Amino acid sequence: MRVSIVRNYLRSLERSNEALTRADRPATFTMQERVWDLLPEVFAPVFSPTTGFSLQLLGLTGPGTAPRTGSLLEIGCGTGIIAVSGALAGCDRVVATDISPAAVRNAAMNAARHGVDDRVRAVRSDLFDALDEGERFDTIYWHSNYVLAPADYQYRTMHERGYVDAGYATHRRFLAEAPRWLNPGGSVLLHFSTRGDLVELLRIAGECGRALRGLRSIPSQEGDDLVDHLLIEVTAVAPERAVPAWDLADANCGSR
Fold first, then answer.
1. Cys-Cys crosslink for 142: which of 55, 65, 75, 102, Cβ 3.0 to 4.6 Å?
2. Of 90, 91, 111, which is closest to residue 36 (Cα–Cα)?
């Protein structure tokens, strides 16, 4: 059986290097009829469709998007497109975090460009580490680095962290820690993909006492492979039910 290249972490690392070093890498780009700044070391949505899929999965595409209220925490914000779009759609408090200092600067630039810097705060943070202890959010969202790399892989650049997760260590931390930062009735949302290892994600969720529920999916053709981009809700479950629940029938999501 042919091993799909889309799940090969070495290919993802190649994609990272290509996006970082391309001669045509722009300083600004257009997405959703808006112009965005792009700093040299930051994930470039213009070279990947995944940010566009994030906007679709979250219902943040186009002028017809329903207004939103409440607070949003975006993990791994990159250029800040999701955070800024959430503020433009009506979120009254948005925190955009990233482990990359360049990404934090980039998100702040785009919040100012689009006039929502009074509602969007960009913070350098390794997941939740730099948040104020008392902060809570109505929605927590992470477009994860869903391609699994070996646990002993050593990142060569900050940029590679946006493409692969060594040993799914970051996914484990996110699943374990995210629910404690929610307001009552809030939601933890994860953008994952069948380019990642769903079986391993489910195993980790079970160990963390988390349930996973597929909300919706978007199919994407990548060469000979059909890849699903998935919006997953992460919930805490009672100890006696601390096993992963993967309910995808209604969302028509599947691993292909």
1. 75
2. 111
- What the block records as the tokens of 22 is 């391309």
Largest CA distance in the chain: 55
Encoded amino acid at 53, one letter? F
Domain extent, residue 221, equals: 5-247
Residue 210 and residue 237 in contact, taking contact as beta carbons nearer than 8 Å: yes
Residue 244 confidence (pLDDT): 45
In a domain, 212, yes or no: yes
198 near 248, Cβ under 8 Å? no
Using H for helix, E for strand and C for coil, what is the string for 50-102? HHHHHHHHCCCCCCCCCCCCCEEEEECCCCCHHHHHHHHCCCCEEEEEECCHH
What number of other Cβ atoms are within 10 A of residue 2's Cβ?
A: 6
Closest CA to 218 of 40, 61, 76: 61
Residue 126: inside a domain: yes
pLDDT at res. 238: 59
Domain count within the chain: 1
Tell me the sheet residues that pair with 98: 124
CB 188 within 8 Å of CB 206? no
Location of structure tokens 């408090």:
93
Q: State percent of the chain over pLDDT 70.
A: 89
Q: What is the pLDDT of residue 251?
A: 37
What is the CATH classification number for the domain harbouring 185? 3.40.50.150
The ranges of the chain with pLDDT < 50 are 1-3, 242-245, 248-256
Structure tokens at 156: 């060569």
Buried b (16+ CB within 10 A) or exposed e, 187-213: bbbbbbbbbbbbeebbebbbebbbbbb
Tokens found for residue 88: 């433009």
In a domain, 255, yes or no: no
